Amino acid sequence: MSMIRDLRAAVRPSLRPSLRKNSAPHSGYDTTRDPSASSAVVDCAVYRDGSRLEGTTAPTPHKAMLQVREEGGFAWIGLHEPTEEEFAGIAREFGLHPLAVEDAVHAHQRPKLERYDDTLFTVFKTIHYVEHAELTATSEVVETGEVMCFTGRDFVITVRHGGQGSLRALRHRLQDDPELLAKGPSAVLHAIADHVVDGYIAVAEAVQDDIDEVEIDVFSTPAKGGRRGSDAGRIYQLKREVLEFKRAVSPLLRPMQLLSERPMRLIDPDIQKYFRDVADHLARVQEEVLGFDELLNSILQANLAQATVTQNEDMRKITSWAAIIAVPTMICGVYGMNFDYMPELEWRYGYPLVLGVIGAVCFSIHRILKRNGWL
Question: What residues have CB less than 8 Å from 151, skipping those under 6 apart?
Answer without folding.
Answer: 119, 120, 121, 122, 185, 186, 188, 189, 266
